[in-house]
Amino acid sequence: MSEIETVREMLRALTGGPTLPDDQMRLAYEQWGLSHPLPAGAEVTNVTLGGVPAEKIVTPGAATDTALLYLHGGGYVIGSAASHRHLVAALAQAGSVVGYSLDYRRAPEARFPAAVDDALAAYRALLDSGIAAHRIIIAGDSAGGGLTVATALAIKAVELPQPAGLFAISPWVDLTQSGDSYAEMAKADLICSKDELDRLAALYCGDDRANPLASPLGGDLKGIAPLLIHVGSDEILLSDALRLAQRAGGARVPVRLMIAPHMPHVWHFMTTELRAAGVAIAQAGAWMREHLDS
Description:
Blueprint: H1 3-15, H2 22-34, E1 43-49, E2 52-58, E3 67-71, H3 85-95, E4 99-102, H4 114-128, E5 136-141, H5 143-157, E6 165-169, H6 181-184, H7 194-205, E7 227-232, H8 238-250, E8 255-260, H9 275-293
Parallel strand pairs: 3-4, 3-5, 5-6, 6-7, 7-8
Antiparallel strand pairs: 1-2, 2-4
Helix pairs in contact: 3-9, 4-5
């Protein structure tokens, strides 16, 4: 059996049973993330950025005047700095940057725009600490990928300098779920479903799904930082990524889009399960170094 088929069997087993309550899903997701090893020599400390809890992750060789502000996925309801620690550490190592994994407030305890407010506060704190905007990358996966773009819009609104770049993995940028791939890829996607995303969107922002800070696909993207987008071919969020690239490009934003054949939602997370995760992380690291040095 091929590596990707093995992963698909694993995903079928994980998603084929009864749906867990959100508190149990949070725990299970965190435990899965913590089962992945960190790069050798990685050091993790708890910090706050603008009053928001975060993990600071330093790997050998990281440039101390840089920052990767990472916004985890999980539909704005699950996920944490801890669940994504291994991924942030791997990206930080690949980009030779200092990683900051943000524990922004989640729904339903804190609804929209709490996550955007927290991400903006964290970015301000990095700037206030003396790290220049052109030495910061903001990145995230799934909901965190959407939050990455929303944060860039919020940064523009308050007239702060844009970061060096934005990296969005399998981004959820349209909480109205209007893209074609929600139906076209429904059977192929073993992680996300339209019904579940509708439920999470309702918990996060209720009837305000079209707000550009919730669905940044509908925002004015002119002037935001250069954008790197990774998405798998087998995702219901494929059309979100494609339309984001098109609209950002139309707004004269430099965009690089990579569609990985056969890959599932946020395959980068599966660092021990998929060699393709390491390849994608290495590619993202090269892009980050290119933009931080420019």
